[in-house]
## 1
Amino acid sequence: MLSPIRRIGILGAGKLGITLAQLALKAGYEVIIAGSTHPGKIALSIEVLTPGAVAASADEVASQADIIILALPLGKFKELPKQALGGKLVIDAMNHWWEIDGDREIIVGPHRSSSESVQEYLATSRLVKAFNHMGYHDLHDEHKPSMAEGRKAIAVAADNPEDVKAVSDVIDTLGFDPLYIGGLSEGRRLEPGTKAFGANVPADQLVRLITP
C-alpha cells in the first residue's frame, strides 16, 4: 500500500512548474521546487510566485518529496538525479520541443513514447505520464472542485495500477478529472502533434481525441 502524499516535489521552475506548484499549494500540499540554478537564485521568485513553497536543489526535491513532477525540458532528462529518484513515484509532464531539444529521435529514439525513454533512464523509479497535454495557462484557470459541471480532464498513462490510482488522486485534488488511457507507451497519444495535445476539455471529449 502506498503512503499518503503530503509533499509534492517539482523539478523545473518554469511556467508549468510554477503553475503546478500554485495548484498544489492551493490544494493543501507541501511543495518543494528546484530550478536549473542554485536554490538561492530562485528563492525570491518562489517566495513571490508560490508563497509557502520551498526552493531546494534537485537532489533535495528528489529525496524529500512523496511524489515528484518533472516539469523541465525533455532534453535535460538525463541530467535528473536518478539515484535520488530511485523508488520514487514520478510524474512525467515533459514534452519534446524541436526548438529546445533538437531532433526527437536523438532524444528519445524512434517508435516509442518519450516517457518510455525517461523510464528507461530512471529505471528504478515508478513513472507516470500526466499534466503534459494541457497548457499551463489552462491548468491555472480551469481547475474546479470535484463533480463540478464542465470540469476538465487530465490524461494518465502508466503501467502500475497503484501508481495510476495515486496520481489520479493528486489530479483530482488539484481540480481535474483523471482519465486513464493505458500503459506508459500510450503516452505518445498525448505528445505534441497529436489531437489530444493542447486539449482543455472534459473527459468524454478527451476520450474522443485520444481514441484512434
Note: The two ends are 34 Å apart (CA to CA).
## 2
Amino acid sequence: MGFTYNKVLVTGAAGFIGFHLSKRLLAGGCDVFGLDNLNDYYDVTLKEKRLEILKGHDGFTFVKKDLADRQGIRDLCEKEGFDVVVNLAAQAGVRYSLKNPHAYIDANVVGFVNILEACRHTNVKHLVYASSSSVYGANTAMPFSVHHNIDHPVSLYAASKKSNELMAHAYSHLYDMHCTGLRFFTVYGPWGRPDMALFLFTRAILENQPIQIFNHGKMQRDFTYIDDIVEGVVRVMGKLPQPNPDWSGKHPDPGTSYAPYKIYNIGNNSPVELMAFVAAIEEALGLTAEKEFLDLQAGDVPATYADVDDLMQDVGFKPATPIKIGIQRFVDWYRDFYGV
C-alpha cells in the first residue's frame, strides 16, 4: 500500500547513510528534519561537513539532540507532526561494542524505545528503522533470508539491533503501528565512515601503511553501495507494511507478522571476497597495499550474503552497483575531499 509523505524526521542525519538519505529526500521536495547528537565516535569534522551541505537546502532543519532525551524527542514529534520517521541514529560498529557496551544500550535500546514512544503518541504513519546484517550472527545458511531465525548474535551490537526488531514488533502488535526494519549489508561509498574497511584501507595505502586483513583474507562481504541503500529506503518509506494473512503462530515467520510489521534485507546480493575488495581498492588508487594477515576478530562473522527477494517483490528494486564502480567513486571522493 503506497502513501505519500511530505515531512520526514531522519535521525542520525549527519551520519553516512542519514546524510545521503536526507539529500535524496530534499531533492524530491520533502521537508526534512535532521536529528543528530554529533558524537565523537569518529571525526566530527566529517559530520559537520555533511551537515553544511544539507543546510544549503531550504527544506532542511537541523536538530541537535540525543535519542536518550526522551522528552525532547517526544516534544519534537508533537510539534512537527511527521509523516514518516526514519531512525538511522545508533551506536555503530561491531568491534567498539566489545570495548564500550553501555554506549550500545543507551543509543540503540533506550534511544529506540524513545523513538517508538514518540511515534506512538504523535501518530507517525510509518516508522522505518535501521537494523543490520550482523543480526544473522552465527547463521551459516546462505544467502541470509529475513525468514531465517536469528537467535544467535555474536556481538552486543547485533543483539541491540535484533532488540530493535523485537521492540518494533511489540509496538506494531500493541498499537497497530506501521514499522519496517531494514537490515543493511556493509554499506560503502563517498562520505563513508572512517571506521569502515574501505576508508581505513584507502587511507593506509595512501600513507604507505600496512593494512590489517582479518581471518587471513578468508572473509566475504555483501558490500552495498550507498545509492542503492538510499533507493531501497526511499521505496520502503512509501510502502506501509501490511499484516501477512497467512502468518501462523504454529510456524512463525520471522520476516512478517499478523501485525503491520515487515523486515527487509538491503544488500548487493553478491558477496565479494575480501582479497578481491582489496584488489579493487589497489586498482582504483594505482597503488599496491602492504598486507598484514591476522586471525578473525571476536564479534566478526566470516561471510554475509543477502537474499533480497522480498525487497524485489514488494518494492521492485534490488541493489546492483558493481564493486569496482562503487570503490572508484569512493576513491575519487576521498582524493578530492582530503586533497590527496
Note: The first strand starts at residue 7 and ends at 11.
## 3
Amino acid sequence: MKNIAIIMGGYSSEYKISLISGNVVYQFLDKTKYNGFRVHIFKEKWVYVDDQDNEFPIDKNDFSATVNGTKITFDCVFNAIHGTPGEDGLMQAYFELIGLPQSSCDYYQAALTFNKRDMLSVLKPYGIKTATSYYLNKGDIFNTAEIVKTVGLPCFVKPNKSGSSFGISKVKTEAELPIAIEVAYKEDNEIIIESFLDGTEVSVGVINYQGEIIVLPITEIVSENDFFDYEAKYEGKSQEITPARISEEMTQKVSEAAKRAYEVLKMKGFSRSEFIFVNGEPHMLEMNTIPGLTTESLIPQQAKAAGISLTDLFTNAIELAIK
C-alpha cells in the first residue's frame, strides 16, 4: 500500500473550494491501493489531519508527519490546491527539491499558466487565438480612453494571477473602469483588461490518461449572470452542458487548440482550458492546472461523460506521477 498525501487549502481566496476538492479525492481514492492522508497547507501551519480532526505538524525537511511516535512518509502527493502555493509552482518546486513525486504539472508550467498574460503570449505564436488585451501593473498611470480604444466596450478587467473568478468585473462604460481596476488590484498587483468576446463559452479538459494525451468531452457554459463568475461556478447560477451543443467542426477546432496548448507547454496531470467561440473560431481565455475536483466541477463531469470514474481518474494521476 502506498501512502498518498492529498494537499489542500492554500493561501488564496480559493482555499474553501480546495478543501472540498481535496476531500473528494480522499473519498474516492482507491482504498485497495492507497492510504490517503489529508494534509492542510495554510500560511500559519502545514498539518496532517486525521479522521477525528486531530492535527499533526508536517516536517518541511522531508514532508513527513509523526503520529504517536511513528514517522509517516509519503510515496506521492496529490495536489488539490487551487491558487497559491499549489497552482503557481511553489509547491511543485518544493517537491522537486525534496524528490517527492506529485500529481500536477512541473513548477515552470504551473508558474507560466498561472500568469494569464505570460501564458497567452507563449501560445500566440502557435496559432492559438486570444482576446485583445491591455496590461497594467500596480502603480501604473492609466488613461481610460486609451484602454477603451484598445479593447473596446464592454470589456473584462481581471487580476492576472487568480482563480475562481475572484476580482473580475465586466465593464460596460468608461467611467466604471477605475472602480473595476481597484477591485482587481485587491487580488493581484498585475491586471489584464480584455476585449469582450461574444460567443459560446466552452471548457475543455485535457489529461494524460494511461500514457496518452486525451481531450475529454467538452462542456458548454451558459451563465445566468453576466459571465461565468464565482456564483455561476459554485452556486448553481449557470448551466453546464456536457457534451457541448457545438458543431463537429467547432469541437474539432477547440479540441486541437486545447491539446496543442497542453503539448506545447509540456503539461502533465490535469488541465482545463476556457475558450470562447467568435465567428466559429475558438479564442483561449486561460488554462487551469489544478481544476476543481468537487463532484459538481467540470473535470469530474467530463470524465464521467468519457466513462472514467473519479477513482480511475485519481489512480491514473497518481500512477503517472510515480512513474
Note: The chain is about 30% helix and 30% strand.
## 4
Amino acid sequence: MLSNFVSYILQGTFITIAVTLVALPFGLLIGLLLALIHTYAGVWATRASAIYSLLMRGVPPIVLLFILYFVLNSNWFNLEPFWAGSLSLGIVSSAYQMEILRGALLSVSGGQMTAARAIGMSKLQAIRHIILPQALRIAIPPWSNEASIVLKDSSLVYALGVPEILRRAQQLSATTQQPFLAYGTAALIYFVLVFATNRALDYLSERSKLPANPV
C-alpha cells in the first residue's frame, strides 16, 4: 500500500521540481536586476524598486497566482496553469531575492568600487567583474532559505489543477479515504527535497568561499 502511495505521488515530484526550476531562476533574474537598480541607480528608480519589493512581499502568493491566471491570463495572456503558477511564484520570490541580493551588494566594501573606477573601469565593468562575483558568494546562505521557501510554495499550484505532489496526495486521499497516509507521504517527499536542496547549497557555499589570507 505504502509503495503504491509513494510511487503515485513521486510522479508529481518531477512537476514540483519543474515549477521550482522555473520560479526560482525567474525570481533571481528579476531580483538581481532590481537589487542593482536599488543600489546603483538614481533616486526615482530606487524608490520604484523599493515599492515593488514592498508590494510583492505584502501580497500572499496564492492571491497573485489567481490574479495572473484568472484575471490577466484571461484578458491579455494565454498561459497554461503550470506557467501561470510558476511565473507568479517567481514574481513573488523576486522581491525577497532582491532584498537578499541588495544586502549582499551593500556588504561589499565601497572602496572596491572607488578603486576600480580609479584604474579606469566603468561603473558597469566594476559591478560585473568585481562587486557582483563577491556579492553572489555572500548571498548563497540566505538565498538557500529562499530556495527552500519557493520549493515548498510550489505546492500552491495545485489550486490551478497542476498535478504536482500535493495535488496527487489530494487525489489519493479522496479515492482511498486514507488522508494521513496520502498527506504524510507528501510531507516526507517535501522534506527530502528541501533537505537535499539545503545540503547542496551548503556545499556550494563552502566551495565558493575565498581562501583566507595568510597572516
Note: The domain at 18-163 is CATH 1.10.3720.10 (MetI-like fold).
